[in-house]
Amino acid sequence: MASNEQTVLQFVPSATSVSARVHPLVIFNICDCYVRRPDQADRIIGTLLGSVLPDGTVDVRNAYAVPHNESSDQVALDIDYHHNMLSSHQKVNPKEVIVGWFSTGFGVTGGSALIHEFYSREVTTPVHLTVDTGFKNGETNIKAFVTNNLSLGDQQLAAQFQEIPLDLRMLEAERIGYDLLKPTNVDKLPNDLEGMEASMERLLALIDDAYKYVDDVVEGRIAPDSKVGRFILDTVASLPKLSPQAFDKLVNDNLQDQLLLLYLSSITRTQLGLAEKLNTAAQII
C-alpha cells in the first residue's frame, strides 16, 4: 500500500520578532574602517557589540572590523584577532556582548551565508547589518537582516536572509554629523561657526513652521490638534525667561570660549609639529 506521507519544503521562522536599534557610533566606526581598509579589499566585515533588550530589540552600540580574505567560494576570518578585540572591549564594558556582524556593500552577498554561520556559533540569533558605502542610491543605505532556516523534512538545506526593522537612534547633534556623511561628496567639514550658523537657520525655519501652523489654526484654515497645541505649550514653557541683553551676553560668552579652545588647540598642534621636527633633526645629526 502506497504511503500518503509527503516531504514538505518549508521555512522555519524565528521564534520571536526581532528588530534592531543602531547608535551613530556604529555607523561612524564602520565608515572609518572602510576608509582605512587595505587597497585590495572590496569590502570590510566586522563584529557588532551591544545587548538584547527585554522586548527583543537588538541594541547595537559598538563595532570593530575583523580582517578577512574572501573569494567566490570561501571566506577566511582572522578568528584570533576577533577574540582578542572582543576581550579588550569587554574589559572596558563587560555588558557589551556579540549581537551580530556587519559588512559594507549593498545588501547580502554570496559569502554572507558563510560568515553568518560563524557568528551563529557565537550568538543565538545574530543580526547582519549592511552599510552601503558605495552610495548607489545617491546616499548611504543601511539595512539589518536575520536568517530563517529553509528545511526539507528534518534536514536543514539553507538559510534565508530576511530584512528586519531598523531604528537609527540619534540626537540632534549626531543627526547633523550623520547628514554630512550622506552626500556623495563633501568639499569640507564645517567649522564650529558654520555649524552654529546652519543650526540657527534650521531653528528659524522650524519656528516659522510653528508660527504658520498657529496662524492657520487661529484663522480657521486648518482644524486644531490638541496634541500639537500641548507640545507647543510645553516647548514654550521650557524656555528660560531671558532678556535680549542677557541672551546676547550668553551667546557671546559661549562664542568666546569656543574661539579660545580653537586658539589653544592650534597652538598645541604647532608645538607638537615643531617638537617632531626638532626630534627628527636631532636624530639625523
From TrEMBL:
Q: What are the GO cellular component annotations?
A: eukaryotic 43S preinitiation complex; eukaryotic 48S preinitiation complex; eukaryotic translation initiation factor 3 complex, eIF3m
Gene Ontology biological-process entries: formation of cytoplasmic translation initiation complex
Top-level taxonomic group: Eukaryota
Is the Metal-binding keyword given for this protein?
Answer: no
Subcellular location field = Cytoplasm
Q: Which UniProt keywords apply?
A: Cytoplasm, Initiation factor, Protein biosynthesis
Q: Could you give a GO molecular-function term held by this entry?
A: metallopeptidase activity
Q: Please report the stretch or stretches of sequence annotated as the MPN domain.
A: 20-151
Cytoplasm keyword on record: yes
* SMART domains per UniProt: JAB_MPN
Main site of residence? cytoplasm
* InterPro entries per record: eIF3f (IPR027531), EIF3F/CSN6-like_C (IPR024969), JAMM/MPN+_dom (IPR000555), MPN (IPR037518)
Instruction: Tell me which Pfam families the record gives.
Output: JAB, MitMem_reg
Query: Which PROSITE patterns does this entry report, sorted A to Z?
Result: MPN
Q: How does it assemble?
A: Component of the eukaryotic translation initiation factor 3 (eIF-3) complex.
Could you tell me what this protein does? Component of the eukaryotic translation initiation factor 3 (eIF-3) complex, which is involved in protein synthesis of a specialized repertoire of mRNAs and, together with other initiation factors, stimulates binding of mRNA and methionyl-tRNAi to the 40S ribosome. The eIF-3 complex specifically targets and initiates translation of a subset of mRNAs involved in cell proliferation.
PANTHER family registered for this protein in UniProt: EUKARYOTIC TRANSLATION INITIATION FACTOR 3 SUBUNIT F (PTHR10540:SF6), EUKARYOTIC TRANSLATION INITIATION FACTOR 3 SUBUNIT F-RELATED (PTHR10540)
> Sorted alphabetically, which HAMAP family does this protein's record hold?
eIF3f (MF_03005)
Spell out the family assignment given in the record's similarity comment.
Belongs to the eIF-3 subunit F family.
What's the protein name? Eukaryotic translation initiation factor 3 subunit F
